[in-house]
Amino acid sequence: RLTQLESDHPELISPDSPTQRVGAAPAEGFPEVAHAIPMLSLDNAFSRDDIAAFAERVAERLECQASEIAFSCEPKLDGAAVSLVYEQGVLVSGATRGDGRTGEGITSNLRTLRSVPLKLMGQQVPELLEVRGEVIMRHAGFEALNERAREEGSKVFANPRNAAAGSLRQLDPRITATRQLVFMAYSVGHIEGGTLPNSHSETLSYLSQLGFKTSNLTEVVEGWQAAEAFVAQILEQRDQIEVDIDGVVVKVNDFEQQSVLGFVARAPRWAIARKFPAQEEVTTLLGVDFRVGRTGTITPVARLQPVFVGGVTVSKATLHNADEIARLDARVGDQVIVRRAGDVIPQIVKVLDDRRASELPNVVFPDVCPDCSVMLTRDLDEAAIRCENSLACPA
Ligand code: IVH
């Protein structure tokens, strides 16, 4: 009825109407959007020592004890950074981070995300508010998207970050609308006609009152040892967390202290990204084994030079099916990027064919079942190759 009403009376369409989440016509391209305040990056820390050194630098500038500093610690979400601008509480613009100064205007795409409020909630809505955060794709949504892409023979994304970024850069917002994307707010870029609380953690609470999702894994701790303990705790839980996290961001919580610390070049002095071990590594494809599943489907399994990735040593990865081998153009002896995240089976996400020094043998899918030697079959409209004699084949 709302759609009908709005089509009869277009003057009644408001930018926060639920009908405006989808339906915008495909764009020709994305306009450039200059960020009023640059979107900065973060310096990295790779060890306990790096965090201790960061805290010492902060303490020296603040002329206090490192053990007294309150740090807000939160997961570093591995997605695509975006900025959302609200005027009088209504979403007017959304943009990618781009190079930090200028991004791409992707408002119609961002509107399709349920987690992007079209209108802010509550009593304390400022005249102008720029909210920053990360658009992420959960593992389940990512796997489902790639599964569908493999069935349709369309583009498969290497990881949830690329899937999130790629989904946001669709010219047709109706495609973005089908992707399972979530916006998680992590800061305010700019505010006018309103005031922020005195600390980062209170700002996160304020953002959640306004209707934004924020990470529920955030904690305020005192001193760098406690921050490092939080890092260890998140790293421990990493496999159970449903999104890709590539580290923990440790931020000085107090805004007054943040302003004393200021910025160097393109990063704040008051925050650091404590990075986790990578979930993607390069290794060598040693060969491919073919396994007969319970229903007779033949699954190619890559044998890999063992590599430490995502916290475990990986020596096997699924190659899904014959189409996937063809799509990757994987050859025995190739350098490949293997990814392991969460409970998902390790995958080969890319073949580094530019590192191929000489001609390498193709991976040949067998004609007959490796278990019972019966001729394999392939349904025309299916990616799976199977052994029709599956009952005889032990899984
Ligand atoms: S704060 C000046 N908090 O990390 C501080 N960033 O290298 C700027 N990121 O592009 C960011 N999770 O998109 C902050 N909880 C978090 C974050 C986070 C992910 C990304 C952010 C930025 C990059 C900085």
Written account of the structure:
This protein is an alpha+beta fold and 395 residues long. The chain is built from 10 helices and 20 strands. It has helices spanning 2-8, 48-62, 107-111, 139-152, 160-168, 173-178, 200-210, 224-237, 255-261, 322-328, and strands spanning 32-34, 44-45, 70-77, 80-87, 90-96, 102-104, 128-137, 181-192, 219-222, 245-252, 263-264, 267-268, 271-275, 280-292, 298-309, 312-318, 335-339, 347-351, 377-378, 385-386. The strands form 6 sheets. Strands 2-13-10-3-9 form a 5-stranded mixed beta sheet. It has a 5-stranded antiparallel beta sheet with strand order 16-15-14-17-18, with helices on one face. Strands 5-4-7-8 form a 4-stranded antiparallel beta sheet. 2-(butylsulfanyl)adenosine is lined by residues 40-42, 74, 76-77, 81, 97, 134, 186-187, 249, 268, 271, 273.
Number of contiguous helices: 10
Structural class category: alpha+beta
The radius of gyration over CA amounts to: 25 Å
Low-pLDDT parts are: none
Shape: globular
Strand content: 25-35%
Strands of the largest sheet, in order across it? 2-13-10-3-9
The biggest sheet, with number of strands, parallel, antiparallel or mixed sense and barrel status, is: 5 strands, mixed
Order of helices and strands: HEEHEEEEHEHHHEHEHEHEEEEEEHEEEE
Tell me how many strands there are: 20
Helix content: 10-25%
Associated small molecules: 2-(butylsulfanyl)adenosine
End-to-end CA span: 54 Å
